[in-house]
Amino acid sequence: MSKQHIAIIDYGMGNLHSVASAINHVADDAHVTISCTKEDIINADRVILPGVGAIRDCMQSIIDNGIPELVDTVIQQKQPLLGICVGMQVLLSHSEENNGVDCLNHFQGKVKRFPKDATDNDEPIKVPHMGWNHVQKCQEHPLWDGIASDTRFYFVHSYYADVLETHCIGESHYGVPFAAMLAKENLAAVQFHPEKSHVAGLRLLRNFANWRV
Is the pTM above the cut of 0.70? Predict the structure, then answer.
């Protein structure tokens, strides 16, 4: 039996090799490629869309590399796709960052900056939200398999996702509640970095590698 192919989209921004290393660790039956070529992405068994940095730069690079059309094709072909960190945010409708940037609109919702006056445990929050935080399960989903609700994952972000409840499968809190995990049909996304989240993060990536849509 041939190995399943997992493609990590390379548009110039993202922890590509860290994600690839984590996937290779949990799915030794997989052939992992880092690529932005149409052939690699649309022929993969599953696809990962990572991202770090400012949303305007990410979206511009995504557009310049023809990624919106490839993501559309992946979704239409029912290939499982996982967005990570800014790779999750670009899947929403719009971001407030950089004076407002339109995104790919695969999840209805907006990316908002954490409020300056927000508090957590009666203490002013620091932005960016950096470090470990709990994620509560909102809905059952294969990505949660073997992971308890309220498990901690590693976050680094200054903006958060405000989306329809129907799309939210995991929620966290940092001054305000925010969506930490999203899913619909063959599309899923996480705000945290599973590749930096030790045992729980690796389990989530293993679940993605085994996810049958």
Answer: yes
